[in-house]
Structure formats: C-alpha cells, structure tokens
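Section 5: illustrative case.
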C-alpha cells in the first residue's frame, strides 16, 4: 500500500494447518510393531502462523541517487523438528 509518494507499507499473514493422516513409527527397533502416531506428530519446520510487516521509503533524492529506509519485521509461531511431538506452546519469536 502506498502511504505517500516514495513510501510504501505492507502487512502479511499466513496460516498453515499441517498434519499427517498416517505416521507409522516403530523406533527402528527390530521386531517391534509399527504404531500410528499421526496424532502426536507435526510436519517439521512448518510454523502454524507467520506474520510480516515492511516499510520502505525514500529519505533523500539527489542527482547521485536515492537514500532509502527499509524496515522489515517477520515472526512465526514455534516449529518443531521433523517427527517430534507437537508443542502446545504457541510462542511467537522474532526471526
């Protein structure tokens, strides 16, 4: 969105509802039966929520070029490594 001449501002949000339908796990133990643990698994490195904001503006315009200010902020909900148990904590952290 253009705020004024030479200045723009943008916001974005993303939501991902990722889950496994079936996840067979036997812990690589010989002779142990495979157990469906899909209810306790989350696809790895897939945050549920993401948010971003961006401000881009021209501070000074001269015959030699432009001096610009760019501020960018992103954050996402906690992710877990592939195959790990789902975290009930929905902390937001700056990235």
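Designed sequence:
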């Amino acid at each position: 969105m253009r705020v004024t001449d030479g200045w723009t501002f943008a916001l974005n949000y993303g939501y991902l509802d990722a889950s496994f339908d079936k996840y067979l796990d036997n812990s690589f133990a010989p002779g142990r039966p495979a157990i469906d643990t899909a209810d306790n698994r989350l696809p790895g490195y897939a945050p549920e929520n993401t948010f971003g904001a961006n401000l881009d503006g021209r501070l000074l315009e001269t015959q030699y070029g432009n001096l610009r200010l760019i501020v960018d902020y992103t954050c996402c909900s906690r992710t877990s490594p592939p195959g790990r148990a789902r975290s009930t904590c929905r902390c937001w952290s700056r990235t």
